[in-house]
Amino acid sequence: EIVLTQSPGTLSLSPGERATLSCRASQSVSSSYLAWYQQKPGQAPRLLIYGASSRATGIPDRFGGSGSGTDFTLTISRLEPEDFAVFYCQLYDSSHKWTFGQGTKVEIK
Amino acid sequence: EVKLVQSGAEVKKPGEPLKISCKGSGYSFTNYWIGWVRQMPGKGLEWMGIIYPGDSDTRYSPSFQGQVTISADKSISTAYLQWSSLKASDTAMYYCARPESGYYYGMDVWGQGTTVTVSS
Q1: Distance between CA atoms of residues A7 and A101, nearest Å
Q2: Taking Cα atoms as reference points, which of B97, B5, B108, B31 lies closest to residue A57?
Q3: Over pLDDT 90: what percentage of chain A?
């Protein structure tokens, strides 16, 4: 079973700064099936990025994804006040099973 | 509009059974997988399992296999998550979500969540 490890656990940044979040898989995976989600308090998660680097419909272009193999990154180019939240990476495998990372909290410094 | 609407909050005692629901609308319910995700208080997301309502093909996370049952009634476009005997450790928020093949099985539609509280 593939394990996704996110780092750091918490990122303290100011609005306008750049955020870089990491997701590492325990073995090489297909980047096609790596997604990122944002979850704000009291809300359901929202799909941001799919296929490691493609933005879902309606997601601002300040959100970007990259990576391959075992290392993936979510970048928020300039943090807006509404971006502070918890972010999860997720992997789908061809047997119709999914795995989440443990999450990274982006908090206001 | 594509929507998943979940049943309301539940408060149960240990040992009681429970079945919560997730009703899909605005799309062809039988042609999309529906998954369930647990979020314990203050914790992260855990994928529990998934069902394809068209043929009831069901897959479980090893962590939840044997602990819960996922089912669906395609005649009313509703998926279910059930427990035969709840434990205090089942206290959590439970979300249903729909993977979209066009998003490489990213989950683009989520229910609003059902809070389950198990306490004596």
Answers
A1: 9
A2: B108
A3: 91
Tell me how far apart the terminal alpha carbons of chain A are, to the nearest angstrom.
Answer: 36
State the nearest Cα–Cα gap between B40 and chain A, in angstroms: 12
Q: Are A13 and A79 in contact (CB under 8 A)?
A: yes
Assess A88–B contact: CB distance below 8 Å, yes or no: yes
Note the pLDDT of residue A6: 98
Query: What band does A69 get if pLDDT is binned at 50, 70 and 90?
Result: very high
**Cα A57 to chain centroid, rounded:** 16
Separation CA A76–CA A7 (nearest Å)? 15
Interval B36-72: pLDDT, tens: 999 999 999 999 999 999 999 999 999 999 999 999 9
Q: Is A45 on the interface with B (CB under 8 A)?
A: yes
CB B70 within 8 A of CB B79: yes
Instruction: Write out the DSSP string of chain A.
Output: ---EEEE-SEEEE-TTS-EEEEEEEEEEE-GGGEEEEEE-TTS--EEEEETTTEEPTT--TTEEEEEEEEEEEEEESS--GGG-EEEEEEEEETTTEEEE---EEEEE-
Which tokens sit at A64? Answer: 């970007």
Is residue B56 within 8 A of residue B49, CB to CB? The reply is: no
CB-CB: which of A33, A86, A88 is closest to B104? A33
Cα of A80 to nearest chain B Cα, Å: 22
Q: Residue B99, exposed/middle/buried by CB under 10 A (0-12, 13-18, 19+)?
A: buried
